[in-house]
Amino acid sequence: MIELLPAHTSELLALWGAAVSSGLAGIKIWETFWKDRVRLASTYSLTDQDGEPHTITVANLSSLPVQISSAELYWVPNFLSFPRRSPSSATPDHFFTETFKIDGHDAHSFEFADQDKFSWDYKTTDGRKLYLYLHVFGRPSPVRLLVYDPERWGRGRWRRLAKTFSRFP
Fold first, then answer.
1. Would residue 167 count as lying in a domain?
2. Which residues of the chain fall short of a pLDDT of 50?
3. CA torsion, points 72, 128, 123, 135, in degrees to nearest 10?
4. CB atoms closer than 10 angstroms to residue 42
5. Is 91 found in the same domain as 18?
6. What is the pLDDT of residue 160?
7. What is the phi/psi pair of residue 120, to 5°?
8. What is residue 98's predicted lDDT score, i.e. its pLDDT?
9. Under a CB-based contact definition with an 8 Å cutoff, are residues 127 and 81 in contact?
10. pTM of the model as a whole
11. 51 to each of 57, 91, 124, 148, how far by Cα in Å?
12. Is 133 within 8 Å of 143 (Cβ atoms)?
């Protein structure tokens, strides 16, 4: 009988098949759990000028559309912040109770103008961060997005100052 493949060649083909099938299984797991998940990000524009509104923009970074039932804005105390332990609402009573949809790779802006503007002075932000809670249909708990961290700017300023006086670039 004529042997078409040597013994070690069939073992190499078996190893090749196992590697290819494992790679394809890894790609399928990545597509299912990481690629097709909803990813939201936020940015802000807070101002003290009269007539200019506070603007908070929520961007949908995924390709899936997101249906949102309501949005709430809270000043949440930092971890172990003893003077103020409970979050305080910054959302006006009549604001953002309607459902809206953010399409894939799109954004939605919230504007707080005139009487809806919230305070963001030092006394309000002391030991707190501004979070936006989005109630998404199909999720048991709201999505929590960090909007404004007053300490982030100060840390960045310190890093720039330290980099200026550093001997190393």
1. no
2. 1, 81, 83-84
3. 0
4. 18
5. no
6. 61
7. -140, 35
8. 77
9. yes
10. 0.70
11. 19, 19, 21, 21
12. yes
Tokens read off for 120: 């963001």
Placement of tokens 């989005």 in the chain: 134
Q: Which two tokens stand for residue 63?
A: 């390709």
The per-residue pLDDT for 84 is: 46
- Structural domain contains residue 168: no
Say whether both 83 and 152 belong to one domain. Answer: yes
Residue 57 near residue 43, CB atoms below 8 Å:
yes
Q: CB-based contacts of 104: which residues, under 8 Å, 6+ apart?
A: 60, 62, 63, 64, 65
Q: Which residues neighbour 117 within 8 Å (Cβ) at sequence distance 6 or greater? A: 53, 54
* Nearest alpha-carbon partner for 70 in 129, 147, 139, 146: 139
Domain boundaries, position 77: 40-158
For residue 2, what is the DSSP state?
Answer: -
Q: Which residue has the tokens 């999505």?
A: 143
